[in-house]
Amino acid sequence: MDLCHVPATPEKGWYLALMAPNVKGPNYAWLDPSRLYCHPQGLQDCVADLLQPFQGDAIDMVAGIDAMGFILGAAAAATLRKGFLAIRKAGHLCVQTVAQPYTDYSGREKVMEVRTDAISPGLRILLVDQWVETGGTMRAAIELVERLGGVVAGVAAICIENSEGGKWIQERYKCSHCVPPRLQPCFDQHQFGWD
User: Fold this and answer.
1) N or C: which end of the chain has fewer CB within 10 A?
2) pLDDT tens profile 48-59
């Protein structure tokens, strides 16, 4: 892995090729973006692409979803000069929380929670996660924000798949992702588009 190389004429999403395929089996996501976070220009370009559609929008806070959404969410919050809120898996926060059950991309039943004192009515929150595959995790985060009176200002992820859940989110919220249209069918079918 070359952590310094940047294409001479980078296209939107050039950094997607830095991601690595799943080699551990069905309990893991099909692709691991964590390697692109190691590439300084790749991470910067990814965050810039995610935030571009929200330029000029009112965003009061960025919330990242446990755990990989923390990386992109914190980077987005720092870029926007906004605060960062961690939406956690249940049992990790030692303060008053509200919880939401959900089914993740692998079909496992889980619960996520958020602190009750961070979201006030009308607060506009950009939700960030690494990936939206089935949409269950993001929908649970949306439910938490809205239950506390917050407004979902948008949803951002490296990829939002055109699954039933991904479409549901894209039909109802302003969304941003990094996958160019020509590669979206490959990502929806969990295939590399750059092979």
Assistant:
1) C
2) 999 999 999 999
Q: What angle do CA 105, 106, 110 make, to 5 degrees?
A: 80
How high is the pLDDT of residue 1?
57
Instruction: Give dist(CA 30, CA 9) in Å, integer.
Output: 28
Determine the distance from the C-alpha atom of residue 133 to the mean position of all C-alpha atoms in its chain, rounded to a whole number: 10
Give one DSSP letter per residue of 44-108, joined into a string: HHHHHHHHGGGTT----EEEEETTTHHHHHHHHHHHHT-EEEEEEETT---S-EEEEEEE-TTS-
pLDDT computed for residue 111 by the predictor: 98
Mark the ranges of the chain whose per-residue pLDDT is less than 70: 1-3, 193-195
CB 49 within 8 A of CB 12: yes
* C-alpha–C-alpha distance, residues 38 and 44, integer Å: 11
pLDDT digits (tens, 9 = 90+) for 23-35: 887 777 788 888 8
Contacts of 27 (CB under 8 A, 6+ apart): 106
